[in-house]
Predict the 3D structure of the following.
Amino acid sequence: MHSPKPRRKPGPTTAGADSGEKLDELLISSAICNGEDLGPFVRKTFGTGKPETLLHHLKLFARSKESEIEEVCKAHYQDFIHAVDDLKSLLSDVDSLKSSLSDSNSKLQSIAAPLLSSLDSLVEAQTVSRNVDLAIRAVTHCVRVMELVSRANHHLQSGSFYLALKCVDSIESDFLEKTQSSTLKRMLEKRIPQIRGYVERKVSKELGDWLVEIRVVSRNLGQLAIGEASAARQREEELRMKQKEAEEQSRLSLRDCVYALKEEEDDDEYESDLEGSDAFDLTPLYRAYHIHQTLSLEDRFKRYYFDNRELQLKSDSQVSSMTPFLESHQTFFAQIAGFFIVEDRVLRTGGGLISRQEVEFLWDLAVGNMCAVLEDQFSRMQTANHLLLIKDYVSLLGVSLRRYGYTVDALLEVLSKHRDKYHELLLSDCRKQMIEALAADKFEQMLMKKEYEYSMNVLSFQLQTSDIAPAFPYIAPFSTTVPDCCRIVRSFIEDSVSFMSHGGQLDFYDVVKKYLDRLLGEVLDEALLKLINTSVHGVSQAMQVAANMSVFERACDFFFRHAAQLSGVPLRMAERGRRHFPLTKSQNAAEDTLSGLLKNKIDGFMTLIENVNWTSDDVPQGGNEYMNELIIYLETLVSTAQQILPAKVLKRVLRDVLAHISERIVGTLCGDVVKRLSMAAIKGVDVDIQLLESFTEQLKPLLTDKEAKEMKTAFVEIRQLINLLLSSHPENFVNPVIRERSYNALDYRKVAAVSEKLRDPSDSIFGTFGTRGSRQNPKNKSLDTLIKRLKDVS
């Protein structure tokens, strides 16, 4: 052996590495010999890039095992030969065992076949048995459900709605989900809400019948209570007289004491009878309340009952105009007294159906209505006896209801008043009549076929514009509303004068005039305003109302002259006291409504302006489509309006319409719809404005020269804008003198917006790169200068 070469002494790091490698070799050898998992060593070896050591140990291990394998094979060779011989000897036994097993299997199958068929029959029988049990349970369940259904139907037929609802609730809560029959379940799900709705309708109908019946019962009950109060008052007076006689005799007999106790006992017995169950029946009400509680509709029923009773109270608080109040006042107050006697019983025995606050609300409502009626009716009373009769009956009403805890101080305060309310009631009556007259108006010109109709509807109110009688049939420029309202106003004047003439006051024209002003300025004006705001929906209707207002202006002159004549005042004095037209609000509203409807109609035509090609290079010779349509409509409108509208009204309306057209055109040019404008489009708008100017020229026969000039000022903005854009020097707009003289109606912001759209794209900032050496159009240059100046201003 060669001696190893001398090596340099390694440093501490190298020695540590060699010892680590030796440790890994030992671990690998140990793992291979012990048959352990070599996965970690393989991953580590290949990870470090040195698989030679692992392969070397594996090869050594394989060579060491080869000899062992040879020794094992040699040792077990004879045993393997003997095992094969033993297996060959068992082959015959296996064949006999196989035949024996086959025979046994055949016998077993022949014996078990009947048993298997019996087992199948048994399984089938058990399945049938289970199905039968399920069917029996389902049928039993359905029978119980049908029993409840039958019971519910029986209760419904007999009117036992509560028991029927209980059956329905039981079906829904206990049986519905468990019902296996889909048909029956669907039927129940469908019928249960129907039954509840049916019960609700039935009890609601019964309640409605009771609400009708209780009104009659309440009237009788109120008469009975007030009659008892009257009898008690008489007994008190009689007793007071007897006590006075007894005092005069200086002693009180025992009989008188017994008599007095007897009176009080009778009173208590009567009050007990009044509050007894036989006086009035609340069973339908409480039954309906109980049913709605069962249906979980308690709050809705309370509201329904309260609302209906409130409506009944309002109805009972209205005084019939067919019967004099002196004849109907007892029934009127008895009805209200009975109403609150019933409500007191419901409050005490209704189980929360109505609260004390709600009863107090109804009582306050009734007191307010009664006070209003009393004040109204006292103004009609001209006889002290009549006033005394009503006052006595109202005081008896207070005594009757004070027993039930109602406060009647407000009624007693009304009884102490004796102020004249006649004109207030008269104004109220006229308001109702005018509302009815206006509601019946069909917004059509009135046709008068006979002379007496003309005299009754025109001459009697001095509405004629000429002293020459027209030919008949005559179509008036106003509708039936005008003479109907004139008749109402004339009747008011005559009634007011008639009333005031018997009041001991000689000079009462100022009073009549004051109430006439209120009638015209408040009642008629408000009614006309309401009519205009709610019933006028078309141009023809608005035009008719505007025409009516012009006729009303002449009628008002007649009203004040008529009042002066009836009051004995000279007409010249009445004329000096005249004020402005009292129907100014409704007149302005009628004209504004007409203008608004016409503007809406114009807006429909103005939608055609969207079809205009704003970048076209061709000028429309006959104007744009939208303007032609507008001119046709305006000409038709004028020809129709001339027949009924006065010239001044027509002028105001047309001026608003033309101004609106101008605003729409300017708004379109300034708006987002138009992105860019061509000079041809501007010239097309110029043609449109010329058409409007031609239309206004056609109106000269109807207008004065001054009015014609004012008419053209309606579209002065669009005219000045077009003139500016078509001018060769648009920058003159920023010159204050020129602007004031020629463009005073223009807003610089609108001018800037339209000018930006009219600017040639080649003159923009980016367009100047390719045309830097070319000469710019003078007009475009002027337009750019204008835009720049306007931007500086803004």
User: Anything to note?
Assistant: DSSP finds 28 helices and two strands in the chain. Residues 91-158 form the longest helix (68 residues). The first strand starts at residue 447 and ends at 448.
